[in-house]
Amino acid sequence: MNHLATSKEDILAASRELIKENGWAAVSIRALASRCSVSSGTIYNYYESKADLLGDTIESIWQEIFFHPEDEQIFHDAAACISWIYERLEYGNRQFPGFFSLHSFSFMREEKNDGKKRMMKTWGHIQNGLCNVLKNDLKIRPDVFDQQFTENQFADILFSLILVAITRQDYDPSSVLMLINKTLY
Description:
Blueprint: H1 8-22, H2 29-36, H3 40-46, H4 50-65, H5 78-95, H6 102-110, H7 112-136, H8 151-168, H9 174-184
Helix pairs in contact: 1-2, 1-4, 2-3, 4-5, 5-9, 6-7, 7-8
């Protein structure tokens, strides 16, 4: 359904819809302008280039995938948090087919500095969230973390496993949950 885009948010929403319906190849300034019922020039008023548009679109997709859950308890329980992350990854894969493929990551490399900053910001946010969960989970044995093995290091391990799940499109958290249970509790 075409609608008149009156803001950057409207343009991003239309861009996400194009991706949901037809994949990454569907996103062009012309297709987006048509979807938004505006001229291509209007899109260029908001974005200097297609790369800028794609960068913001990718960032908005990550935000949609990892919206803040209503249940705050997720951020106080490592196992619940990991289950939630995997559920959100599965949602992202369903809603945005191909988003997690290496092809979509190549979009981020087109504008290397900006793309890398955006990806690192998103991934850093996820890693920091994991670290905070590890610090807030009262069920974790008090002797698990010390100066040689910190919450940050374990969050890095968990995040690495999440990245492997993304590339394999394997959204079953059972092996990661087993690792958490055997290591932390």
